[in-house]
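User: I'm putting together notes for a lab meeting next week and I want to include a structural view of one of the chains we've been expressing. I don't have a solved structure, so I'd like a prediction I can at least talk through. The sequence is below, exactly as it appears in our construct file.
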Amino acid sequence: MQKRTAILTMAALAATGAAVFLLARLGGRDGAGPAPRGAAPPPSPLSALRPGPGPQASADPVTETAPARPRQPGPSWTLDGEVLRRASGAAGGDTGETAQGRGGGDRIAALFPDSDDAATPDARVITGGLRALRDSGRPLSFEERQSAYRLLESTSPPGGLVETAWHWVVDEMLSTLRAPHGSDELIARLEALYRNDALHMVVRDYALQHLGHLHGEGADPVRIERVLAHALGQGDGTLAGVALLALRRSARDEGLATDLDLGAAAHRVAADPGADLRSRLSAIQVAGKQGHTDALPLAAELAGDPAQPVPLRMSAVATIADLGAAGDHQPLLQELGRSGDVRLRTAAGAALQRAGGGLTD
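Assistant: Thanks for the context. Below is the predicted structure for the 361-residue chain, given as structure tokens.
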């Protein structure tokens, strides 16, 4: 019995509340160091929000595998000496002391090739350079910020980068722009990126994610919350889910500056069958974390509906537990505990444990 309880408890950590407990990961890779060669960055801030055995809260991959030495930049791909030394040094390489940034000292432009004929950039060197800029304490100039914005507005990855590598660079570039710069300017730019439906959904997701970070960094909270609230009405892709997680983090850590009822807003997204599944997964759990008891009937309905995707049913079970109603839904949870799907059995058992009970044989 003790072994079974331990297994259920460990599984519950992974299977319940996954979306909300990943709020801390909305910081992307800030200060995380370069990823090893072959390690693809997550395709979206919501990519890890599918309940189930994963995701595991592990250390950054760079601490587990030393990255390979980066390729040397070609003659038209030169970096400011300090940036290049620090970027390549983080990946185990070394460079000369005399490399000069092109574009009149534009350190952002210097991270990318001049033309299609230039050497293909290594995303690890670019992101290392961006982190070096943040660490330098020297604010980006107006010219450098404009270079960053132009790159972010690209409808295809610049400089021959593959799409997944570009998304990693986007996250690092937004973190660099957030460093010590005027928040009003950046809020406007992030809103424009989010609203630009010509951009890849991941870029738009990251714009919302970083708006959420600005909320706790001294930026105008009312303006940020209005943009994020607007995104809650977007049924396409994962925008609503990312906005919900950003708002949930802000509500938890700083408090909301507007009268937005976050629980009710999450309930609406969760109840929308046309919304993206990943957004609905986040939404039903945010409703529970906010204590929005009006979502309880919906959670019970979703949990008991075999036509619904299993991850959504698991999130609904977690919400029942979050709202303190597992004891009142014993028949439903016991039935799920006899399911042929181990994921549902695990979620139901975890919910009943939180109510002081357990599955019956």
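A couple of points you could mention at the meeting. Residues 163-178 form the longest helix (16 residues). Residues 224 and 248 are 13 Å apart (CA to CA).

User: Perfect, that's what I needed.
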